[in-house]
Records
---
Amino acid sequence: MTSPQQLNPGRPEYTGRSILVMELDAHPDEESLARTVRSFAGTSSIASSSDFGHHAMVMDQIGDEDATLFPNLGLAVVPGGAERVAALRNAATTDARIRSVEPEQVMYALAAPADAPIGDQQLEQYLRGYRDAASALLTNLGLDGATVPTQFAPNGAAATASATFADTDATTWGLQAALVDTSPWTGEGIRLAVLDTGIDLTHPDVVGRRVINQSFVPDEEVQDGNGHGTHTSGTAAGPRVPPSGSRRYGVAGSANLFVGKVLSDAGSGSDSQVLAGMEWAVTQRCQVISMSLGSNDPTVSSAYEAVGQRALDAGCLIVAAAGNNATRPGDPGFVGRPANSTSVMAVGAIDPEMQIARFSARTGPAAGGQVDIAGPGTVVFSAWPLPDEFKTIQGTSMATPHVSGIAALYAQATGATGMTLWGEVVRGARQLTLPSVDVGAGLVQAPR
């Protein structure tokens, strides 16, 4: 099995295909979208997701020379690399049917680097120094032992300025910090999709549970041969009382879980695979889509921006990992694709001492590259494919399913969807004594 710590992207990689974002207002039906693809891209062979009826698009049935049409999203992926992109972009400037053209990229599962794992001496010294400096500052200000003002705490409850958390026999530190362990909501009736490397369907905490699943990776079943997808699915929607006898690690244990395998067992996949999974989840009427994946590209993707907005319009909130390209305290990194789209909720990571994780990407200068909220993202215990059964890892990937699962709780508690649901999640966050460029609205909190 591939270790997720080996999956972090370097510079953006490209597949040699291009993505067309079409104006839906200029296309009354799917056939008009197909005509645009044929005439604009010069491609006669088109595979459409609608060809598969009520089933998800099977990516290994699509030839390399085919165009792939996602009519519900208004997107198409066509053959042709960088030179073709330039020509198509030039043509698009005078074609009202086309919003944008961009090269298709490779997406990766986002787990924190393995070169300095949580618990190593260097990180312990850094955190200890940070804590001691903060304590000294509070003492000098006469605020030793002070509490955060109630207006900065969830539901008016005071939160200690020096709060630290740890796993117990009953629950993980992340569920405690996010108030999931005391929330009465379970996500029942809410459709929650996790797009990742799949899930271990033989895991004792999954066996017997209905998991709607689909693989979008050619020649691979949804069964997770990597681990990253099982871990994120476990955090987002693991059972309230795990049959395995483990401590609780899942947020929305009663949600209807949809798992789309969009990344291979090696931890990577194309935009086409991710977009196919997103269209499937939106078509399945999922209220929340969790995506712990991305590319280290600070430029905003018109394709993911369009999909995010169209998903919100359809009542679906997309939550994505901000990225792990920071090496703090020196380099705060930047939010990468697709989380840097303004229509996608970007999630940063904090540690058990309520400090920013040293790998967590910061809001960048480009429009859209904003961290919107933070979740528990270090020493995160969750499910793992057998025979390991459980594993503790770190990354904004681990923070993202905390937020996604809590979004499902808010959807159940309030009935909110789309942009309204986004507002509920952000308004419920606990403000932290950290820059908003790192944590956005603050630490995600479950509804009470």
Note: The CA atoms of residues 314 and 418 lie 7 Å apart.
---
Amino acid sequence: MNEQLLQYIWQFQYFNTRSLATTEGIPVQVLNVGMLNRNQGPDFEHARIRIDNTLWAGSVELHLKTSDWNRHLHQYDRNYRKVILHVVYEDDDPAPGSLPVLELKTRVSGSLLSRYAELCNARSFIPCEKLIATVPEITLSVWKSRLVAERLIRKGGIVEDYLEANHRHWEESFWWLLAKNFGLPVNGDAFEAIARSIPLRLLAKHKLQIQQLEALLLGQGGLLNDIFEDPYPLLLQREYRFLQKKYNLQPVAHAVHFLRMRPGSFPTVRLAQLAAVIASATHLFSKIIQEESLEKVREWFKADANDFWHYHYTLTVQGTHRIKSIGASMIDNIVINTIAPLLFAYGNVYGQYTLKEKAIRWLEETKPEKNSITKGFECLGLSNRSAMDSQAFIELKTRYCDERRCLYCAAGNYLLKREK
């Protein structure tokens, strides 16, 4: 037993409520358990409890033991002056106090406690690995929708940080997030730093010159500092030195990495592809807000890097010919990690529910991610049909299962309260 479980038991009344009475034998009737308080003060506020023949309205405080009240010094805290009932798992203080005490130890199901202990102590892929197949599909479906919304809201926190840093400029925020996405996990921070160092208004001045765009991106990433022999890298180097002086640019401090990376994901290739996207489209986020067809949006990102890159993965080594197109999987990644979160955040900020719906709909229309987490859930028999499913699984695993937050999970909740 812990206080989180005790809160859960009280909130959902998962105990024998027949003939409730205080430790002194006074009848108790719970009319409203109150609202869970996650801030300072009593555990539940705005409760309504009938004690004997008197109806009380106020707060309820929960503890594992009655003595915890004094141990936590609540008797000296003004926040606890409106407490009307002290709910404890075990009454270890027989002396009558000023507050009525309700003990739950003999009223809580032993099977609930054992199931909770089993979940908390499980060392499998997820705590309920052996039981999740028994959770009704409708419960999981509704829960996955909630998980995706939670994930998009949480990602919206990153967007809000961007907006605070760039004076509420949504297009600039889209540029930063898009660049971070192109960097993938390894170079995401470096690519974001590069984007922050090159304002959109500066890129707009040079969008008709792909070499200058590449020079800006590669130069700010510190990739044009070598001694080159090939004419094209030398051209980019000259362009960058001119633009660097003209705009007083300073390369970012973040290093870009090539180690243990497939050539197609080398930062040089990704930056060249990013330059191609910039050159081929303008006001992308404004267009995304207006567009209803995800297929049309995907077309805007189907860009090929400049010709030089069809024979190169780096600025110095020539390879076999291969067109460096932005593939379907990368565009899926952009939809999942850039477009949907920003669209959802925009809808949240301006109260446009249709945009939030569109963000979720586009996730449903996007292929699912394939990684160790999604494969784990697939092995348990759960369907992974779209990016909405895969995003829900990632949120569930990282924010609930790994942290053993079974009490706040719809699947965990179902398994804990079931009769068998």
Note: Strands lie at 28-32, 35-36, 44-51, 54-65, 83-90, 101-103.
---
Amino acid sequence: MSAGTPTVPIITADTITKLPPEADGAVILSGSHGGRYPGYLAAKAHVRAVILSDAGLGKEEAGIGSLPYLEALGIAAATVSHLSCRIGDTADMRARGVISHANAPARAAGVAPGMSCIDAAGLLRSARHVRATAPTLGEARGEVPVPGGTRRILLLDSAALVTPGDAGQIVVTGSHGGLVGGAPYMALRTEGFAGIFHDAGIGIENAGTTRLPALDERGIASFTVSAASARIGDAASVFHDGIISVVNGTARRLGAAPGMRASEVLLDWARRS
């Protein structure tokens, strides 16, 4: 492994939404998907470089949308294959992650597909540190109007945007359906009626759907939509475009099944008493 610049720290973060101040100038290994929103958060934290999960690429290759976004800012970024390690789990990234894609600044530092994640992280220590102003991505939280509905359908581009006030509602997120750091309590940070996620290509050991059984234990209906059907990191796309790929028992009892349109199921749930 190339040492790059040994004084540059390599910081692990199971989710890019929780970066320490020390991330400024560091190389970040994050279990988050490689979509544009995590790219925005990495740039906002002034990281030197970041490695994320490719989330199965999916619709319009949204799973690696951070790479061109960060390349335009001069920031090095790469992704590991969702088939090589569990999404949301940086310990597994370090142990088994294999690089699938790299942007031009990362390639300039020597990063290439097929390389181990930890070797790539060492090379990225020598990447140029660009403290760019991150272009904002617009409103990351919205809602679907449901006239006569008994519960709200909330659209959150990241599960990190969930608040206690979302309890009892249908929470549609752009986030992957994998447990963050393997922690069941992180599956959904409120007692929602339902929690909806992107399957991130499902990936190795079905990692992209591991939130579902954790939410089943709490009596929360949950399903994922297929990576091919909707853009990861985009809750509106998950709702409007998403085709259900995997359901938990609670969702199944409410009538959800693989192959159904997410929007039709969720509008039905929103109108139920």
Note: The mean pLDDT is 95.
